[in-house]
Amino acid sequence: MSNTDHKRIDLTVRWTQAQPNVAAFIRSIVRNPTDAEDILQDTAYRIAVKFDDYDAARPFIAWCIGIARNCVLEWRRKHARDAALLDAEAIEHIAAGYEQRAPEHSRMSVTLQRCLDKLTDNGRRLLELRYDRNLKPARIAEMLDSTPASISATLYRVREMLRQCVESTHAAEREATP
């Protein structure tokens, strides 16, 4: 494999882990989902272009948040007439908060993914229908030939299993750390 291939793989893995946090940062500032998605895409593009400049000694998520902050500030300048926009100082404070919490968010994302991997196919499917596709239990019930009450109860059990898994994983990590 060439050096370029290794860099491409490294960027892909890092971005896959960082993207949910970067998206959350952008959505915390930009309320319009279409604008937020456009900014996220612009951020991803700039990260890919600037990846050779990334210093591996620095947390990747924090570096990405910095690039996203610049994209948000540019978007804000273009939309300066909108009265509901946060000022630049508020955006800086939000970005700093996300950068500080980046390692914790990354660890939590990994834990959640491991817990999701432990779910049954049916549990993962229900979560995908409910949260990725934003379907209500009544609609899911129609699709799966079930009842809304049954879907709601199953979703409750799946969420409870995830909560317990995440909590037990974090408790085990705290005990293992001196």
Q: Topology, please?
A:
Layout (H helix, E strand, L loop, with lengths): L2 H27 L3 H18 L9 H19 L9 H30 L3 H12 L4 H8 L3 H29 L2
Helix pairs in contact: 1-2, 1-3, 1-4, 2-3, 3-4, 4-7, 5-7, 6-7
What does this structure look like?
By secondary structure, the protein is mainly α. The chain is built from seven helices and no strands. It has helices at about 5-30, 35-50, 60-80, 90-115, 120-130, 135-145, 150-175. It starts with a helix and ends with a helix. The model has no long low-confidence stretch (mean pLDDT about 85).
Mean residue pLDDT: 84
Radius of gyration: 19 Å
Shape field: globular
CATH architecture of the largest domain: Orthogonal Bundle
Distance between the ends: 40 Å
How would you spell out the order of helices and strands?
HHHHHHH
- Work out the helicity level: over 70%
CATH class placement of the largest domain: Mainly Alpha
| Sheet with most strands | none
Number of domains: 2
Number of strands: 0
Instruction: Give me the CATH fold name of the largest domain.
Output: Rna Polymerase Sigma Factor, Chain: A
Which parts are unreliable, with pLDDT below 50 for 5 consecutive residues or more? none
Structural class: mainly alpha
Strand content: under 5%
Count of helices?
7
Descriptive key words:
178 residues, mainly alpha, Rna Polymerase Sigma Factor, Chain: A, Arc Repressor Mutant, subunit A, 2 domains, 80% helix
Give a concise summary:
The chain has seven helices and no strands. It is an all-alpha fold and 178 residues long.
